Amino acid sequence: MRNILFGFFLIFLGLQVNAQPINEKPENSPYEKHLSQERRAVPYDYVRQADVFWEKRLWRVIDCRQKMNMPFTYPKAPFMAVIMDAIRNEGLPVYSALSDDFSEQIAPSEIFDKLEGTDTIYTRDPVTLRDTMIITQQIFDPLSVKKYEVQEVWFIDKVASRMLVRIMGIAPVRDVYDVNTGEYRGQERLFWIYYPEARQILANSNAYNPYNGAIAMSWESLLEMRFFDSYIIKEENVMDRSIESYATGVDALLESKRIEDELFDREQGMWSY
Predict the structure, then answer these.
(1) Distance of alpha carbon 203 from alpha carbon 152, whole angstroms
(2) Cβ atoms of 258 and 247 closer than 8 Å
(3) What are residue 180's phi and psi, to 5 degrees?
(4) Is residue 129 left, alpha or beta, with left meaning phi > 0 and alpha meaning psi from -120 to 50?
(5) What's the pLDDT tens digit per position in 175-213?
(6) Burial bucket for residue 13 (CB in 10 Å: 0-12, 13-18, 19+)
(7) Ordered alpha helix ranges (H), 90-206
């Protein structure tokens, strides 16, 4: 009887060993890394509408040229590449660049045709005066996205007696240049993604950790911990205008700082010492 049980144990052990996945190409690491696939986005605490007595919606810009924001343009895994992969392979919904209320969803094919489609150029031979059509394939470089717009809501929960912030959307922004002259034409917002729909995907995507390579920091953690530098470009107002519509240069930065100080003063004003 003991030999029979031992035989069943060996068969069971063999099945468990065979059931383990075999990596045909092991990761370039001295140990197995699998924690990023096991992470889960922690649900927010439930907040009743009746418990929120103050709220403000803001739009800010993350400039990847700032030193603190360099993980967004890490060459091996830029943030834009993570977003594009989520749209292509994970089915992440995409919303129009003009729809910051996420009411107009667009097909992912529109984004890929715009960024990775073909471009047609006509050239004229100066001798024969014949037009020649040249079709080129556009190659999208994720590192060409240097800025990200972030829409967020700040509110005060009177039950928790604290001010909270929730990111609502993220929009990549790139510079636009004239195809023929190379002249700078301005900036273009490509699309919006609704952050609550992307949280779990970002929780399973690693961001570069400049302080400790052993700690795999996710993009969701980076954003939730506010591990980025930014400046405000708009606050909700009765005219729905952005800061650049009434201030430029240093004045725009001072206006952004004023709004940040108002947030800080309102939170500090909740307490009496």
Answers:
(1) 18
(2) no
(3) -85, -45
(4) left
(5) 888 767 778 888 899 999 999 999 999 999 999 988 887
(6) exposed
(7) 108-116, 195-203
Which position has the token pair 């091996």?
76
Q: Token match 């889960």: residue?
A: 40
Q: Where are the beta strands (DSSP E) in 48-161?
A: 52-63, 94-95, 105-106, 118-124, 131-137, 145-157
CA distance 25 to 17: 18
Residues 157-189: b if buried by 16+ CB within 10 A, e if exposed: beeeeebeeebbbbbbbbeeeeeeeeeeeeeeb
Which pLDDT tens digit goes with each residue over 16-65?
334 333 334 456 666 666 655 667 888 999 999 999 989 999 999 999 99
**CA–CA gap between residue 37 and residue 208 (Å, rounded):** 16
**Would you tell me how many other CB atoms lie within 10 Å of the CB of residue 266?**
14
pTM of this structure: 0.79
